[in-house]
Amino acid sequence: MTGEAVVVGAGIAGLAAARGLLAAGWRVQVRERSDGLPVTGTSLGMWPAAMRALDDLGLGEEVRAASVEARGGRILRPDGRALARLGPERSVRMVPRPVLLEALARDLPPGTIAWHRPAGDPGLLPDADVVVAADGVHSPVRTALFGVAERPLGTVAIRGRALLPAEGVTETWGPGRIFGITPYDAISTYWYACFRAELLPEPPPAGATAEVLRGLYRGWHPAVQQVLAALDETSLDRRELLDVPPLRSYVTARTALVGDAAHAMAPNLGRGAAEALVDATTLVDALTEDAEPLVDEAGVAAALRHYDAVRRPPTTRLVRAARLLNRMSTGHRLVRPRDLALAAVGRLV
């Protein structure tokens, strides 16, 4: 017997869930409000659990071939001196978002994704055995069914690419602001600036974001200055950072929240995309029994409860930890004690 699933959102979590459910014998319809996959985007950290999820989806080798491996990392002071180091045994693959999305969407049956189809009223979604809400941090499904909206972190991020190679992974912490540098691919750098919202001029000058950044990070070490000198104003992405308060459940009736709809978090841990992939494969596994879809109401309800029990506790901890790290790294006060404590922890680990 074939089950039917409606997936709301064609981002990482939604496409991964759709791909996994199709492979498990489900009929799947994906509804996406945009007109197609994005052609630009950030560099995403794929930790070992996420790479295992991609292996489960049959995409691990393809993604490895199209990404770069980063080992270790350093947290620096604005003058370039190291506060803490992560050893080379800590490995993460840096995957461009467009590469990952294209891999997840490739070879889906024609018509699986209905582009330019917003979710609308969650109560009016097509009847299906399962609804997978993968509609992001602003999730209308979560707001309607769970009554929980996203919340601001009080910080702003500006991100982009620079056409120069990155020498490893670094994050530089200063008063009220940080600056991160990671590989995007073999020839370019993905960078991000995160700072307290009140440091941004009000209103922000139109078309002068690069100049604002150069002012905020003036005098920082040469690697930051090299990136700032190579900025392309037209490619900058600026957004207020948000997360989702911890939920009492990720499931209700026939609906499951996945990815940012369930647990959008501050980007400081670099885990959002990776956890979305693990959500998707965990949900697919829960909804499949003996290689067959679970389509009876009791079976689906039990599968969703299992998914919630497995995924909600660890992702709730990550949301809290990422929020705390966002506050610490961009703190205005007690910067020297913070740096001393970070250096001490770095020596221990």
Keywords for this entry:
single chain, 349 residues, alpha/beta, FAD/NAD(P)-binding domain, 8-stranded mixed beta sheet, 6-stranded mixed beta sheet, globular
Class by helix and strand content? Answer: alpha/beta
How many strands, which pairing sense, and closed or not: the largest β-sheet? 8 strands, mixed
- Give Rg in angstroms: 21 Å
CATH architectural arrangement: 3-Layer(bba) Sandwich
Shape: globular
Distance between the termini: 52 Å
- The number of distinct structural domains comes to 1
Q: Estimate the helix proportion, in percent.
A: 25-40%
Question: Count the strands?
Answer: 16
Oligomer: single chain
Order of helices and strands: EHEEHHEEHEEHEEEEHHEEEHHEEHH
Number of helices: 11
Query: CATH first level: which class?
Result: Alpha Beta
The spatial strand order of the largest sheet comes to: 3-5-4-9-10-11-8-12
CATH topology: FAD/NAD(P)-binding domain
Protein name: Monooxygenase
Keywords: Monooxygenase, Oxidoreductase
Pfam families: FAD_binding_3 (PF01494)
GO molecular function: FAD binding; monooxygenase activity
What's the layout of helices and strands?
Elements: E1 4-8, H1 12-23, E2 27-31, E3 43-46, H2 48-56, H3 60-65, E4 68-76, E5 82-96, H4 97-105, E6 113-114, E7 130-133, H5 140-146, E8 151-162, E9 170-174, E10 177-183, E11 189-196, H6 209-216, H7 222-229, E12 237-243, E13 251-252, E14 255-257, H8 260-263, H9 272-286, E15 288-289, E16 292-293, H10 297-329, H11 335-348
Parallel strand pairs: 1-2, 1-7, 2-6, 4-9, 7-14
Antiparallel strand pairs: 3-5, 4-5, 8-11, 8-12, 9-10, 10-11, 13-14, 15-16
Helix pairs in contact: 1-4, 1-9, 2-9, 9-10
Keywords: Monooxygenase, Oxidoreductase
GO molecular function: FAD binding; monooxygenase activity
Protein name: Monooxygenase
